[in-house]
């Protein structure tokens, strides 16, 4: 186990850096993350400053160099070239731009999605059918999933549908936290001449990865989940040698076609949020980056999963293969209404979770610990699930 993942005193000290609203225990930290007190304070200072200075600072300082330095630091975060990244408001906006502007499709080509993709990604890929004349192929993954079964599903699709040119791939599925074997799938796709657009929304900040090693040329990410940034910040990534394969967004002209920033819509951004990013990146590194954050939430995940999985009437839906899970994991009360049970977890035990719909296993309850989650919080979850399970009743 990585150092400090199970050091409760260490993580209690980190938790004290964040403000918590009194109320239920939040086990839905996958929606968006918290800013630390220091980040929140600096963000509010920037809000006040930009409100005072208005366009004077933005035109004279921010647009004349500050923004490029922040972008350089973002690229450094993912070990990429500065010219490969452009800010967006979120991962969805980034992914929609990549899908909408991918220019290597011809009428009659096929594009591939799976049942585990985020719904807006599915919608964007289906949009291509009407506007590009392509055929959308959707595959379903077997449940329970294994490393080999996930890869084989794609190999089978590539063999069955030889006109596939583009596919969406989600690194961490938002329904159950299943981590896809991205490198193996991307390698198999590349062998068939298929490009991959990666949804990295839940991966950045809790999984260590290198996009070049993964074989990924196109990707979209959030900065407000596991990095600790204010809301409204995400970015897209395009490998510099593949920039020409993504058109400027809807004829965007404020940047030249040779600039990756032309692949996003030009608009007035959240300047105070962007100006706060250097502190966000500094805190992320000081905490140990994705290695430390991922190890901690994985440790908390293992604490509850190992005790809940044996219970009668409970099904944990996410694999225990360490290659296939992260801090996010889902379960279900077999044969019961999951929303009713999630409501009971909140009403009777003060535990806030969320339900998600999975195509092969119906509705599930998603549990996502965060950096402020304690082992006592996990004990409370285990106690609640145990008391609500048929074996206890």
UniProtKB/TrEMBL annotation:
Task: Give all residue intervals belonging to the Aminotransferase class V domain.
Answer: 37-353
Q: Gene3D superfamilies this protein is in?
A: Aspartate Aminotransferase, domain 1, Type I PLP-dependent aspartate aminotransferase-like (Major domain)
State a single Pfam family of this protein: Aminotran_5
Coiled-coil region(s) = none
> Is DNA repair there in the keyword field?
no
**From the Swiss-Prot or TrEMBL record, what is one GO molecular function term?**
transaminase activity
Q: Which UniProt keywords apply?
A: Aminotransferase, Pyridoxal phosphate, Transferase
Signal peptide boundaries = none
- UniProt name for this protein: Class V aminotransferase
């Amino acid at each position: 186990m990585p150092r400090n993942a199970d050091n409760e005193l260490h993580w209690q000290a980190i938790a004290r850096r964040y403000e918590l609203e009194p109320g239920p225990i939040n086990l839905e930290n996958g929606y968006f993350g918290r800013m630390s007190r220091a980040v929140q304070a600096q963000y509010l200072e920037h809000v006040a400053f930009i409100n005072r200075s208005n366009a004077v600072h933005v035109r004279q300082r921010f647009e004349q160099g500050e923004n490029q330095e922040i972008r350089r630091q973002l690229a450094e975060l993912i070990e990429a070239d500065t010219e490969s990244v452009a800010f967006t408001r979120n991962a969805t906006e980034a992914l929609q731009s990549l899908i909408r502007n991918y220019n290597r499709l011809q009428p009659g080509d096929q594009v591939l999605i799976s049942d585990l993709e985020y719904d807006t990604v599915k919608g964007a890929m289906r949009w291509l059918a009407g506007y590009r004349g392509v055929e959308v192929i959707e595959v379903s993954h077997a449940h329970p999933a294994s490393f080999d079964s996930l890869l084989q599903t794609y190999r089978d699709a590539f063999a069955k549908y030889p006109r596939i040119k583009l596919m969406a791939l989600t690194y961490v599925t938002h329904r159950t936290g299943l981590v896809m074997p991205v490198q193996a799938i991307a390698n198999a796709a590349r062998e068939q001449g298929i490009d991959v657009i990666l949804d990295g929304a839940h991966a950045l900040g809790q999984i260590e990865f290198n996009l070049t090693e993964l074989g990924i040329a196109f990707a979209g990410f959030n900065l407000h989940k596991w990095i600790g940034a204010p809301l409204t910040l995400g970015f897209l990534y395009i490998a510099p040698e593949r920039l020409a394969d993504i058109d400027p967004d809807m004829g965007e002209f404020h940047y030249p076609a040779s600039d990756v920033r032309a692949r996003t819509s030009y608009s007035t951004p959240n300047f105070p949020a962007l100006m706060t990013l250097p502190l966000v990146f500094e805190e992320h590194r000081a905490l140990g980056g994705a290695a430390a954050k991922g190890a901690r939430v994985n440790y908390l995940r293992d604490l509850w999963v190992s005790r809940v999985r044996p219970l009668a009437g409970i099904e944990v839906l996410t694999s225990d293969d360490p290659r296939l899970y992260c801090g996010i994991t889902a379960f279900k009360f077999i044969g019961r209404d999951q929303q009713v049970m999630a409501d009971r977890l909140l009403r009777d035990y003060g535990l806030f979770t969320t339900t998600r719909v999975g195509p092969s296993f119906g509705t599930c309850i998603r549990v996502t610990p965060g950096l402020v989650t304690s082992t006592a919080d996990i004990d409370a979850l285990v106690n609640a699930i145990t008391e609500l399970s048929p074996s206890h009743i």
